Amino acid sequence: MTNPVGRDSWPDEADQPPFKPLTAEEAKALKSKLPMVSPWRVLGTQALVGLLCTAVVWAVTQRSSAAWSALYGALAVVLPGALLARGMTRGTKSPVAAAVGFMFWEMLKIAAAIAMLVIAARVVPQLSWPALLITMVVCMKVNWLALAWRRS
C-alpha cells in the first residue's frame, strides 16, 4: 500500500517514540495513580438520583402515576446496570474471556432495559412516558460523575 504523502513511512510513524511495555512495578504505580470507581457506587448514585427525580416529579405534578412512572424509569436504568456490574465484577484472568464477558453482560443489560420498557405500560398504571424517559436520561447521565470521584 502506498503512502499518500509519498514517503516510505507514514507521517505519524517518525514522530512517535517506540512502544515500550510497562514493567510490573510501573504498571502497579500507574494503577495506584488511577484508582477505579466501583460500579456499585455508580449504581447507588443512579438510584439516589432516580429517587430524587421521583420526588421532583411528585412535587411538580402532584400525580402518583407520574411519580411511579419516574420511579420505574430509574429502575429501568439501575436494575439492568446491576446485571452488568454483577457480571463484570466476578473477575477473570483471560483478557479474551473478559472481553467476551463484557459483551455478553452488556447485551443482557440492554435486553433487560428493553424488556422493562416494553412491559412498562402493563406494570405502571396510567404510565407517564415523559416522566419515565426523563428520569431514565437523568439516571444514565449520572455516569459522568464517576470521573469526579477519581482521586488525583
Can you tell me about this structure?
The chain is 71% helix and 0% strand. The protein is an all-alpha fold. The chain has one domain. Helix 3 runs antiparallel to helix 4, helix 3 packs antiparallel against helix 7 (129-140) and helix 4 (64-88) packs antiparallel against helix 5. Keywords: Cell membrane, Membrane, Transmembrane, Transmembrane helix. Its main location: membrane. InterPro entries: ATP_synth_I. It holds the Pfam family ATP-synt_I.
Oligomer: single chain
Q: Helical stretch count?
A: 8
Major pleated sheet: none
Q: Averaged pLDDT, please? A: 85
**Helix percentage:** over 70%
Could you say which structural class the secondary elements and strand pairing correspond to? mainly alpha
Instruction: State the separation between the terminal residues, measured CA to CA.
Output: 44 Å
Provide the succession of SSEs. HHHHHHHH
- Number of E-type strands: 0
Approximate shape: elongated
Radius of gyration: 22 Å
Beta content comes to under 5%
Uncertain segments: none
Number of domains: 1
Subcellular location: Cell membrane
Main location: membrane
InterPro entries: ATP_synth_I
Transmembrane segments: 40-60, 66-85, 97-121, 127-149
